[in-house]
Amino acid sequence: MNEIFLLKLGEVVLKGLNRFSFENKLKSNIARRMRPYGSFNVHIAQSTIYVEPQNDDCDVDGAWDACHTVFGIAAICRCRPCEKNLDAIFQAVEDYLGDDLSMAKSFKVESKRADKRFPMTSIQLSQEIGGRIAEAFPQVAVDVHNPDYTVYVEVREQAAYVHGPAEPGAGGLPTGMGGRAAVLLSGGIDSPVAGYMIAKRGVEIESIHFFSYPYTSEQAKEKVLELARLMTRYSGRMTVNVVGFTKVQEVIRDQCPEEYFTIIMRRFMMRIAERIARQDGCKCLVTGENLGQVASQTMEAMAVTGAVVDMPLFHPLIGMDKKDIIAIAQKIGTLETSILPYEDCCTVFTPRHPKTKPSLREVEAIEAKMDVEGLVAHAIENTEKVTVRYHGGNG
Ligand code: ATP
Ligand code: MG
Questions:
Q1: Is the per-residue pLDDT at 395 higher than 50?
Q2: What angle do helix axes 190-200 and 218-235 make, rounded to 10 degrees?
Q3: Which residue among 13, 19, 148, 319 is least crowded, i.e. fewest CB within 10 A of its CB?
Q4: Which residues form the THUMP domain (predicted)?
Q5: Residue owning the nearest CA to atom 7 of ligand 1
């Protein structure tokens, strides 16, 4: 084929941690993510993954887009493979990068010689190819310090490769290296971003959504499933647990003082989420909470909410500014869906004056009069598991 992708590994290399299994995991993640786009050969050598389309039916642009969303990759480039001799390398530069080069003001060549049998040093190779480019593109100046465009030549084991500047990869660690987490997913802006952030650390995720039909509509549920589907572009296939939460909310409304509605509701969410998480082998819960955003997101309220669970609770957005959260939502493609109007179960029976500094003792005293276990069990029984994927197939 006349074009392939080179994917450079990220932190995997730096850490030296069990590198072999990291690399293999990454390789199989990429192979799986390429599948919807046709037949690709994926192999790894010298901390670089080679993704080669096998025939003309491959959707190379679709595959290239997908490469941007695979965690564990620092940088990616599309390149032209060629024979390992000067004429072939220069020919590849001219054919493959000629358009970019002719639009640049200045250029330099940077070479890497991974195949030490190649008879020139990388400096000699850069000089030779640079000289030929200068001749062929006389209007483009050579500038080795601050070039407008850089031509890269890599001489590797099987072939030489030429490419322009690399693009940033998705970063993070390969999915599947860091255990499994359950993300509490609402229809808002924050929780999909929180899920993305935790997934980026190599963690497999599933989602839990609390759904209070008919107080929240079928469209609100569809919206959350769509958000989950968008997240799978990064996380891979995902299970969404849609928890029937109506009864819990009605009982809270009927039996608790109004200013405690929100905090007690959130404690029920945590109890139910922990139960589902344990059943599914998740080792932590993740929320989109952000300190100080709303009444339930004070330190005091979060302490009372967190006191009810016995597994790590992660809040990846806790210290971020809203505009930075929004920028990530935009980048990962969830923002547009998040800002569609919707009702969340949090907005059902919202107290006029929620307690911003609830005391654990008071909350526990109120809950002591409720059938907590019965309500949790009822919600678990009324949970529907939905699988979402980015592509209809095995995305
Ligand atoms: P988001 O933008 O994620 O909705 P938020 O700023 O609206 O967050 P809250 O409504 O207080 O904040 O919710 C805080 C967190 O609680 C959410 O980020 C989410 O993790 C979880 N959460 C809230 N409502 C639900 C729900 N209906 N189902 C599942 N999790 C929820
Ligand atoms: Mg919300």
A1: no
A2: 20
A3: 319
A4: 61-166
A5: 188
pLDDT at 12: 59
210 annotated binding-site participant: yes
Weakest-pLDDT range from 79-93, 260-274, 282-296: 282-296
Q: How far apart, in whole angstroms, are the C-alpha atoms of residue 152 and residue 161?
A: 8
Average pLDDT over residues 33-58: 93
* Two structure tokens written together for 391: 């592509």
Tens digit of pLDDT for each residue in 225-270? 999 999 999 999 999 999 999 999 999 999 999 999 999 999 999 9
For ligand 1, whether the C-beta of 189 sits within 6 Å is yes
To the nearest 10°, the Cα dihedral for 348, 353, 359, 360?
0
- The annotation status of 145 as a binding-site residue, yes or no, is no
CB 287 near ligand 1, within 6 Å: yes
Question: Is 5 near ligand 1, meaning CB less than 6 Å away?
Answer: no
Pairwise CA distance, residues 73 & 12, whole Å: 9
Answer whether 75's CB lies under 8 Å from 144's CB.
no
Distance 114 CA to ligand 2 centre (A): 51
Q: To the nearest 10°, the Cα dihedral for 188, 193, 195, 199? A: 160
Distance linking the first and last C-alpha atoms of the chain: 24
Check if the beta carbon of residue 105 is closer than 8 Å to that of residue 141: yes
Cα 308 to ligand 2 centre (Å): 21
